[in-house]
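Homework help board

Subject: predicted structure for assignment chain

Our instructor gave us this sequence and asked us to write out the predicted structure in token form, then describe one feature. I got the tokens but I'm not sure how to describe them. Can anyone check?
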Amino acid sequence: MSSQTPPTEVLFLGSLPLSSASEVYTKLLGALPSSLHRVPHRACATTLGWRPLPTTTVKYSLSDIKPTGYDDRALASYKTFYELRTAGTIPSGVRFQVALPSPYSVVRGFIETEYWSSIEPLYEERLLQALRHIQDSIPASDLSIQLDLPTEIAALESDQGRLEDPYFKAYFSPVKAGLFERLTRITKAVNADVQLGFHLCYGDFAHMHFVQPTDAELLVEIANTVVQTLGPIHHVTYIHMPVPKDRIDEAYFKPMANLTLKDTQLFLGLVHANDEEGTKKRIEVAQKTYSKPFGVATECGMGRTPPGELESLLGIFASVTGGSKEKAGESK
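My token output:
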């Protein structure tokens, strides 16, 4: 590995293949007691899919859109989080992380094309209601909100001509400006003392990307725009960028030299199951281009990960974080 300091912090992006919130927290903190500053609330991912939306009427109102349920699930998990922290299982300062999809992602995934523009604002209102309920019920000092952006990445790749399937094409133009108008509205709704992170993603359906990234150039462009455009509205705590398993070449990481993240923390999703040596190599190559410290993660959430792979990933995380003795808890 590089002579630079090894990563010391781990980020889990979302759901895990475990049966309960209690199992999530005890499993992760048992394996990585000094490397976590936030823990995800999701377990049993197969029951937590995005809710289908109506497609049977032509004109919609808010009453047609059911509440998202994200708040109810999060608050149920937070109760367990609070109990385990009170018991000392979860260290003080570790935050409760809630990952949310953007309204654009949900509508694009479940609604026929002709209804996107009419339903998206209504679903956005429902999502903001859920976010308000979460923030009203959980102390800001305990909470971290993560926005997941796979559909946004797909729309931008399509706009650049790398995705020919019309399924991925945005229904508005200019695409990047339209996406950031939407993200601006969500960002404004996040309370000041709540952490805010962004998960950039190329998809993980059947462990496949919707397109293989040529390199990290588009991710760097989005990350910089997030910090420059949304950072003045709300401090961006972290940004996650994926690294495909087969990319151990410097060409993939070279655009990272252009990252301008200020004090936003970078997490690289370069940890892959059953590939400790490859993971170490990806860290080494990344450090040649990006000289600042970064944390490590998987490419995407782990809800569809087989149990054996989960054990492999936890072992690799423990190995590459160098047995950090730092206390788990609050990050900058």
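Reply (TA_rk): Your tokens look well-formed. For the description, you could write something like this. Confidence is low (pLDDT under 50) at residues 44-50, 324-332. That's the kind of observation they're looking for.
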